[in-house]
Specification:
alpha+beta, 7 helices, six-stranded mixed beta sheet, about 40% helix, Alpha-Beta Plaits
Length: about 180
């Protein structure tokens, strides 16, 4: 149903969809998740509850990436505990444009912290752009589809950067 605005009532015009409807914004959803995090933390004696070499570095890399691309960090950036996973939305940006920076994040995690992550970037027709501090709402709508892709890649060993249907980078730190 169309909603009447004050302007419509004053001018006597029929309600306008262009003034009242929120247009869908296409863009990209990016999900990043460290691989085998629990096992690596146990093996290396790292803390799960404060930043360690991997989670502290990932926090920094995500913040730099978000600034560069003006991304909405929907979920995951945690400076107090370190970041193990993150969900970002990038309005108006095709996933293919992000490929180089995402491969760089994967390569830096491998070279500096000797860990791998699974990174998925998918172009979608509609973004919500709403941030949340809770995990469950971060994985709804199109994000649920991207999460399924991420989980599928992790079951096959992870350590890859996947952009719009193809693996573009495989981490040398990938554990198989």
């Amino acid at each position: 149903m169309k909603r009447r605005t004050a302007d419509d009532a004053r001018t006597g015009e029929e309600p306008s969809l262009t003034r009242t409807a929120t247009p869908a914004v296409s863009g990209s959803i990016v999900m990043i998740d460290l691989d085998d995090f629990s096992e690596i933390v146990d093996e290396r004696g790292w803390s799960r509850y404060k930043p360690n070499p991997a989670t502290g570095l990932l926090s920094s890399l995500i913040e730099d990436f978000a600034r560069k691309w003006q991304a909405v960090i929907v979920y995951g950036l945690d400076w107090d505990r370190g970041t193990e996973e993150a969900v970002l939305e990038l309005p108006g940006v095709e996933a293919g444009e992000l490929a180089g920076d995402l491969a760089r994040i994967e390569a830096e995690l491998c070279s500096a912290a000797r860990v791998s992550a699974t990174i998925v970037a998918v172009t979608v027709p509609g973004l919500t752009g709403l941030a949340t501090s809770e995990r469950r709402p971060a994985y709804t709508g199109y994000r649920r589809r991207v999460k399924r892709i991420l989980e599928s890649l992790k079951r096959r060993g992870g350590g890859v950067v996947y952009v719009d249907g193809e693996v573009i980078f495989t981490s040398p730190c990938r554990r198989i």
